[in-house]
């Protein structure tokens, strides 16, 4: 076998590999002999089939298998002999092959860069923390009570407002024709819930009990029923009753609905939940600050293929957000600007991922099977009733398990670095803690 390096450009390498015809022929003969000993054909005793018959019947498939194995074995050998750390699966391009001749192919690959972490103990970070006060607990209790609200007839004579529940009869038409599913009797609709087509509920705000209204709306262009997408619909609506939402009373009875014995215990549970939520936000803030500092202090080449894979994943998500109108400031940016911006983000993510991976490798950071099992159980709980299918999916898909392991590893390495760094806590208001850090960055740049 001949292995010749034909190109070395940064992290990219290209090789020309030639496996001699003699080696190929020997492996084919060995494989045919193996088949001959196992195959059973009419007219021949087991193990007594002539090699010529076996070659005639199985020669093509055996040759293909030998060629595939030869490429796999020789490519691994080329990488191993040179001690190369490959970033992605090598790309193989076969030259023209004729039976009886040498096997020649080109192999291109990208290498992992040499990463040298800086002095992690010299990092100084600020961690915002917020206290849970009684006002926040009371606000959460009111939201809990609101979620357990009932409705009651209005006690005052007023028109319907957002938040009210109206009892309506309605019948709709498109192009003057009634369609299935566009009518109902005694339907309870909460105004402002966006349960119906955009604009429908708005046209019932201000209606009085006993009033008839004609509501005209247009189905969205991406409406699931394609025959209605983009079409105008007219609904004749009778408002039969208006009911106000009545929150549940914050008392011991409400607490018992949540499985605790008293209101004091519910308050304690709410306080603990808020503490946990604020602690998680605090950690995300300090983690982001850490990653920003690591990105600023480490610069090395990254494999272009890894960047491309990360960029494509980001770009697909962005395209969906743009389609749904949920891309915020990106909604009106030129595509060229967006591509440049998100490619830079992809490169940063790959570089940070490689850096954290190297820190973890050097310091023997490991994810135990128990930690992985807990993550798997948590993932399965996200799909009530489908837990068994989730477990089976991960059993059959090693890459899915790796996708589960990766964020666990990253968080564990981050925790390791935070132990080395100097982390100063700063008490902030809840509003400041929960505010989007990108907004703070924008304000700072504008100042």
List the helices and strands and how they pair.
Elements: E1 2-9, E2 12-19, H1 21-38, H2 51-81, E3 91-94, E4 103-110, E5 124-129, H3 134-147, E6 150-153, E7 165-174, E8 177-190, E9 212-218, E10 232-246, H4 252-257, H5 263-297, H6 304-324, H7 335-362, H8 369-381, H9 387-396, H10 398-420, E11 422-427, H11 430-434, H12 437-446
Parallel strand pairs: 5-11
Antiparallel strand pairs: 1-2, 2-4, 3-4, 6-10, 7-8, 7-10, 9-10
Helix pairs in contact: 1-2, 3-5, 6-7, 7-10, 8-9, 8-10, 9-10
Straight-line distance between termini? 66 Å
CATH topology of the largest domain: Trigger factor, domain 2
| Class from helix and strand fractions | alpha+beta
Reading the helices and strands in chain order gives EEHHEEEHEEEEEHHHHHHHEHH
Oligomer: single chain
Number of helices: 12
Strand content: 15-25%
